[in-house]
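User: Hi! I'm working on a homework problem where we have to compare a predicted structure to a textbook description. Could you give me the structure for the chain below?
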Amino acid sequence: MRTAHQIALWSICALLCLSSFAPGSVKSRDAEKFGQVALVGTWLKDDKAFKVRIDKQSERFYGKIIWLERNHWADGSPKKDHLNPDPKLRSRSYIGIPVVLGLKYDGDDTWNDGKIYDPESGKTYDCRITLVSRNRAEIRAYIGFPWIGKSLFFNRVEP
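Assistant: Happy to help. Predicted structure tokens:
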């Protein structure tokens, strides 16, 4: 026969175990909080052409180019945003150009509802980023529908 003390301990253990699966528990709130900032960091494109630093501002995520493997054109002149549709921005350097624009955390390691700017074409596309693993991300650039687009892969180089 169990004592009242043993029954109380078993009851407490059962409650603790059940509460860890309850919606809105501390554990799930912590996972959600981590998920929201898991994208923050410095990412290197698979071909090692450039690095993007992604940060959170309010509830949205933004990224800018912080490093280029080749910061100059073939003629030796520095790379500028010469194809930007806004003529006032065409003289800005590639370094510092905002390329990830206004993504929102959607849960399940996915960020949606944003844009990505391609300075090599001067075009802006819809964008979705999915973490394939903690240190690898797929950026899907598309027009209208994600399945009609192009994926780029990045690896985290700094948190």
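For your comparison, note the following. The radius of gyration is 22 Å. The chain has two domains: 1-29, 38-158. Good luck with the assignment!
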